[in-house]
Write a structure and sequence with these properties.
Layout: H1 4-19, E1 24-28, H2 33-46, E2 50-56, H3 64-75, E3 79-84, H4 86-93, H5 99-119, E4 124-128, H6 133-140, H7 146-149, H8 158-161, E5 165-167, H9 175-184, H10 189-192, H11 212-231, E6 240-254, E7 257-270, E8 278-279, H12 284-297, E9 301-306
Parallel strand pairs: 1-2, 1-4, 2-3, 4-5, 7-9
Antiparallel strand pairs: 6-7, 7-8
Helix pairs in contact: 1-2, 1-9, 2-9, 4-5, 11-12
The protein binds xanthosine-5'-monophosphate.
Length: 319
């Protein structure tokens, strides 16, 4: 019968067989569950013959880049390249407010940066992807916008352009089996049970045109919400919980001064697969604490609102 340890052993053996005794492989590490488990698993199979490329698009949550470095570079001692490409993404996004346009730009720049880095690795002849079984099914059946949504994940045409063989060690696994494999690989809970986070990152939670200052506001607010949700013991109960920065400013008052500042929306949902979702009835004292902290601690925000919409007809993200 299947145990997490036997899943790992089989997958490690399959990777070794496919790559052979001498070849090298590259992997795009995002910090999400799938690419993280694929990375540690392939590291066990290939050691230093695996290079992980972490494209930091500057659209990540607070502390995420450092956390990936600590976890995979220092703790697991993977061969890790942290590409700090935030400025390049911001430049490409300047003045762009259409959501699909933003996604396309981020996908394109990601591929450019990844490919540039991959070409610097001498002798890489395989590309590792953290494709799961449901992704395999999804790509052969019509699932509406999710096909588009996932498009940034595969490094569009790169395997052919660079003549890389594809290694997909998670291809036969479901999410819960991936997590179990991660546990068998001694990976920490904070990686394996992280809430889903979209590839385009904070860019699609910063409504309208993105700027460094707007990202700063959103990142600070989001860190407070996450901290309070965790403290309330709800982080793993919720499918997702995050902040959205609205593209309007509203009037407020601070001391004797009138303010004209940003609005943060709190979004928290229950879901099992992201296809449908119910807005989470967060405790009012939690909502109140988060609101007070965001308005007090985040410069530039004077109002917090709560999203009480379910999917459908709303979506989980606002863009
Ligand atoms: P929606 O907003 O469509 O989101 O209800 C459903 C799930 O998909 C995630 N999502 C994305 N993931 N790239 C991603 O990798 C994207 O462009 C994207 N858009 C939405 C969303 O966070 C939710 O879990």
């Amino acid at each position: 019968s299947w145990t997490p340890a036997s899943i790992v052993d089989q997958a490690v053996a399959a990777v070794q067989e496919k790559v052979g005794p001498d070849a090298r492989a590259v992997l795009g590490l995002s910090g999400g569950v799938d690419s993280s488990v694929a990375a540690v698993l392939c590291h066990r199979a290939l050691g230093d013959r695996l290079t992980c490329i972490f494209v930091d698009n500057g659209l990540l949550r607070e502390g995420e880049g450092e956390a990936v470095e600590r976890m995979f570079g220092e703790h697991f001692r993977l061969n890790l390249i942290h590409v700090k490409a935030g400025e390049r993404f911001l430049d490409a996004l300047a003045g762009v407010s259409d959501p699909e346009q933003k996604r396309k730009i981020i996908g394109r720049v990601f591929i450019e940066v990844f490919e540039e880095e991959a070409r610097k690795i001498p002798g890489a002849s395989f590309l590792v992807q953290g494709t799961l079984y449901p992704d395999v099914i999804e790509s052969v059946s019509f699932k509406g916008p999710s096909a588009v949504i996932k498009s940034h994940h595969n490094v569009g045409g790169l395997p052919e352009r660079m003549q890389l063989g594809l290694v997909e060690p998670l291809r036969e696994l479901f999410k819960d089996e991936v997590r179990a494999a991660g546990e068998a690989l001694a990976m920490p809970r904070e990686v394996l049970y992280r809430q889903p986070f979209p590839g385009p990152g904070l860019a699609v939670r910063c409504l309208g045109a993105v700027s460094a200052e707007k990202l700063r506001v959103l990142r600070e607010a989001d860190a407070i919400f996450e901290e309070e949700v965790r403290a309330a013991g709800l982080y793993e109960v919720l499918w997702q919980s995050f902040c959205v920065l609205l593209p309007v400013r509203t009037v407020g008052v601070m001391g004797d001064e009138r303010t004209y500042d940003e609005v943060i929306a709190l979004r928290a949902v229950h879901s099992t697969d992201g296809m449908t979702a119910d807005w989470a009835r967060l405790p009012y004292d939690l909502v109140g604490r988060v609101s007070a902290r965001i308005i007090n601690e985040v410069r530039g925000v004077n109002r917090v609102v709560l999203d009480v919409s379910s999917k459908p007809p709303s979506t989980i993200e606002w863009e």
